[in-house]
Amino acid sequence: MNLRTGVRVVVALVALFFIALGIWALISPMSFYEQLAHFPPYNKHLFHDVGAFQAGIGTTLLLALFRRDALQVALLGTSTGAVLHEISHIVDRNLGGKSTDPYLLGLLALVIVVVTAVYMSQRQR
Predict the structure, then answer these.
(1) pTM of the model
(2) 19-54 pLDDT, tens per residue?
(3) Cis bond before residue 102 (omega within 30° of 0)
(4) Rounded distance, CA 95 to CA 90, Å?
């Protein structure tokens, strides 16, 4: 195995690690807290946010292995994190925060997704 292949294998493994941790924190935040990140006090929403951004980082790394366009990779990874972050704020709206958070973060996620779609549609021409 040459150095380039070795780096790609490590990046793929790290990407899958981040994605798995992110999904775990999103789906089962208490288990994530008890098993991996026991730093009291427990905050369900914080772990949902951590999961959203971990999954976004992992997605970015994974896409970087298959795409050459750095901006496209960044936009797709950011879209993933932003959409998952918005979902965590909708799900956790009864846990605190500002009443405007789901709306403002939803708008931000929508803008990022639209910009990503526009960019990708222009690149395919």
Answers:
(1) 0.91
(2) 999 999 999 999 999 999 999 999 999 999 999 999
(3) no
(4) 10
